[in-house]
Amino acid sequence: METDYVAEFPHNHIDRRPRKRPRFAWDFPQAHPKVTASLFVSLHSGLYFGQDVGNGTSMGPSRVLLTDHSGLYLKGLAQKGSPPWRDDDKDGHYMFALGENLTPRYKIHRKIGEGTFGQVLECWDRETREMVAVKVVRSIKKYREAAMSEIDALQLLGKYDRNGSRCVQIRNWFDYRNHICIVFEMLGPSIYDFLRKNSYRPFPVDLVRELGRQLLECVAFMHDLRLVHTDLKPENILFVSPDYVKIPDYKSFSEAACYKRLPKSSAIKVIDFGSTADGHKHHNYIVSTRHYRAPEVILGNANLLPP
């Protein structure tokens, strides 16, 4: 199989006088003979290595950049190639750069959140051609185990909530470079983020009533499946749409803050099922984020079994 890259001469005219031979495009740093031979076989067999997908390594055509630790580089980097391997930070978070790929399918657009579990990245899904939210879990055993439990809960919820009107929908999941990655539909801001950007102005009573109704329906739906969220808080309740309108704020005494934001849609969904408890089992450990923890949980009198 012929390679499909073309080497270009660096000059239009080459002086014929004896001198040190110029470096052309095909002059690569010398690598170990075994590495060079293996790369030659990979190229001429139409395969390449270096794309981490799931628990293994993806194989595909030869229009990619092949790199090894000896410093050998070949031309023809594909836009869908995997980024260079980087060590995680001291806390086990995945290190990335904007514009890089998270497997050949997802291109990282920006970071939209970070927490104890890991990071949430907004990515372009090349297969479905839409923006998605990818939760990249820290490469630590307990968080990986929690992520697998969350996947089980999400799949169970999605099985019975086919319209996806209560809980965030899972689209996909994979294990990438020792990080569990969960792909979700793209939603709007959380209730907390919306309030924060709105200078913590309160929502109208009618909107609060509608948000409460949807939240109670979601909790009842989970309890019917014998599941307990255990971490309900404004940060884990997201508006479906990011759109909002500005209306006059007549209670404001500042000219710079005479308008406040209101969401165009009151539709919400619950996220973050990493600490979801199975109602079929008895749990006596402390749950919920400390700032929102209920008194009965603090006192150790909580029974997580749904009625």
Structure characteristics:
alpha+beta, Phosphorylase Kinase, domain 1, 5 helices, 307 residues, disordered N terminus, Transferase(Phosphotransferase), domain 1, two-stranded antiparallel sheet, 6-stranded antiparallel β-sheet, single chain
Describe the structure in your own words.
- It is a single chain.
- The protein has five helices and 14 strands.
- It is α+β, with helices and mostly antiparallel strands and 307 residues long.
- Strand 7 and strand 8 (179-185) form a beta hairpin.
- The longest helix has 20 residues, at 141-160.
- The chain is globular and about 55 Å long.
- The protein starts with 32 loop residues before the first helix and ends in a 9-residue tail after the last helix.
- Mean pLDDT is 76; it is low at 1-78.
> Based on DSSP secondary structure assignment, what is the total number of beta strands?
14
Which descriptor suits the 3D outline?
Answer: globular
Main-sheet strand order equals 3-4-5-6-8-7
**C-alpha Rg (nearest Å):** 26 Å
Which fold name is given in CATH as the topology of the largest domain? Transferase(Phosphotransferase), domain 1
* Sheet with most strands: 6 strands, antiparallel
CATH class of the largest domain equals: Mainly Alpha
- Taken as a percent bin, the fraction of beta residues is 15-25%
